[in-house]
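Hi R.,

Here's the chain you asked about this morning:
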Amino acid sequence: MAFLRSISKPDPATLITGDGVYLRAPQMSDFAEWANLRETSRDFLTPWEPTWPVDDLTKASFRRRLRRYQRESRDGHAYPFFIFRDGDRALVGGCTLSNVHRGVQQDCTLGYWAGAPYAGQGYVTRAVRAIIPFVFEELKLHRIMASCLLENERSRAVLRRCGFREEGHSRGLLRINGVWRDHVQFAILRDDPRL
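And here is the predicted structure, written out as tokens:
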């Protein structure tokens, strides 16, 4: 029975609350706000992300994205969240737990982004701090990994502030903006101290 509890899946209506932010699964009703934030943040985000498909900001593409998210969540492989600011409930970014491994590994990969108007204001740091207990207590994983481009000092600072430790350098890890790029690897373990 302990094994079955170790692979429990969160309720699709999971709400994660943090300091001035909350996270929840994306919904179709988020489309207009998401598309607007991504479009106005395009120049800010593209240096740090995979190349956007031509139809990325269309309603049809968003619908396909949601279907993929639902399938991955149902199968226990990934858990996407949007980050909202308390008070006015503005969508400020996103946070995804992907590549969830069970068995002897018990880990996942954390990714995140903030829209340009909200970058550097601490929202992503607060969201990452909020999602860490979810990973360790609800998903019952042992390790969270994250990677960022070598020159992405903002992302490195977020991870350090949240207790992640730098573990090394991976050559050509991800294809970012059309080019295979080196990344710095970070991780936090269930037993690591929380900051």
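One quick note: The first helix runs from residue 2 to 6.

Cheers,
M.
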